[in-house]
Amino acid sequence: MTFTTMAVRLRVAAHQPAVVLGLGTLLVLAVLVVAPIVGLVNSTLTAGNREAWSDVFASRLSENLLWDPLGNSILMGVTTAVLSTVIGGFLAWVVVMTRIRGRAVLGVLATIPFALPSFALALAWESVFRNDLVGGSTGILWNLGFQVPDWLAWGPVPVALTLTAHYFSLSFMLIAAALASVNGDLMEAAEMTGASKLRVAQDIALPVVAPALVSGALLAFAEGVSNFVTPALLGLPVRFHTLSTRLYGSITTGDTPRGYVLSIVLIVVAAMIMYTSTRVTGGRRSFATITGKGGRQRGIALGAWGWPVGALSWLVVACTTILPGIVLVLSSLARRTGDFTAGLTLHYWIGGSDPSIAQGQRGVLNNPQILQATANTVLLGVCVALGAGLLGLLISYVVTRRRHPRWMIGSLNVLSFVPFLIPGIALGAAFIAQFGAPIGPIPSLYGTFTILVIAGIAATIPFAVRSGTAAMSQVSTDIEESAVMAGAGMVRRLRSVIAPLTARGLFTGGVLVFVQMVRDLSLVVLLATPAMPVLAVLTYQYSSENFTQLANAVTVIIAVISVGATLAARRFEGAAQPWAQKTTAP
Questions:
Q1: Which of these, 149, 232, 469, 576, could form a disulfide with 396 (CB 3.0-4.6 Å)?
Q2: CA angle, 399 then 491 then 14, to 5°
Q3: What residue stretches are annotated with the ABC transmembrane type-1 domain (predicted)?
Q4: What distance, in Å, lies between the first and last C-alpha atoms of the chain?
Q5: Whole-angstrom Cα distance, residue 225 to residue 428?
Q6: Predicted TM-score of the model (pTM)
């Protein structure tokens, strides 16, 4: 193609509104995604900062800065992946494939931990198992006379177990959806040919579920590697560092160049994990089990094993959903931390300033800072949901309508997925590197609400685009072509045709984004300041300062907002759970 031909095509394309829209969304993604990463890398290559690379990779500090935290991160990732897959797979099998009573309730309870902030489970663990190793208040078991060993109170064991309690829910949802697609008629036909139950499970059910097993394990691995708050709460007191806690410590103590280098390392590790996930799951053979014919789910009668399996299932959801919630609420009411014998009080919820309690801190519902943080958190979630939802709608429109150059569609697909590869704390560091100082006429955004919003939009754009694409693909192009024939321009089509028809899917995606922002600490822990507080950061600060009741009370507020929004979205959507759906003939 000659330069003249290319110039002519570009000039023609520039007069097409749809192409202009595609170029505009590409520009926005470049600012939100590409610029922060480039700024992060560039900050480590400027004069005076290049030594940070050698300090991290090849110096006497390397073991403490990189290699030990990297090994701990991988250990947490592997443990979380294995345990999440085993527990999530077991519960998915119970809910979808058996006839155990109450399995629908089990399914709902198994999805709740993922809607909670990850530090909720860490705080609940600390409230129960904390001992006197690091000083300060002790937990419930210690106050009852149980000598909790150090390995159970602090370090890799509680970190791995609480991460598993949070992320098994992700594996459960993926595996349950895959099991729901297994046609009971196929399994029954195989058994009629003389195949054993083990052979049927191995040759029919397992191949269908295998991609979900792998995806769930790799996603849990990635989350375990990049999670910040759980290792910070349960590991830092005994100097158990991961990559995320080490880079947070470097940046907050003024060692910014080394923190930026560690951020790049964490991004590369997460990207390699997600690339492996794509290669493994994308290269598998397809096992189609949903056809035009009616299918039916056939529950397995467990017989004598019914009670033990049911009891184990309820024990899992009790330990990961019910008991942590009870512990958090009761701990926020305890007059003395971890000691219920001294009685309960509402002071930490509605009390005024009392110098003899929590150094004069007011109750969470009577504390102006917490009320301001609540308003900031909700407003942040709404602004990010609206911004990401609008951008996701425009990107999904360009991608699904296929009237654009292939390079544009490919670029939008790649750039809209990149933030999913970047751990939240590393993305926060990237935004500080890019927008923490004035850029021409643009002032420094650090410490402002603006940087929280644009960072949130960048972090959640993968969810918004995937939700928008799913909703957009259900709208026939015939409807839009009819609007074109009626003389409607692109803006009017988007406003009057596309947006109303995709509203339900966009709303669901918006709630997902809202919940992600309300409960996420990793992204905002470096960006929020005392002048611009948010609930998640206040929780971490209260916990670090040993104000356990206040930390637990704020966590309960976050959990109520997150779970309430999730349940409201499910009610609005009116969709059955994947494991409750039935395949019907057209």
A1: 469
A2: 65
A3: 70-277, 374-569
A4: 48
A5: 17
A6: 0.80
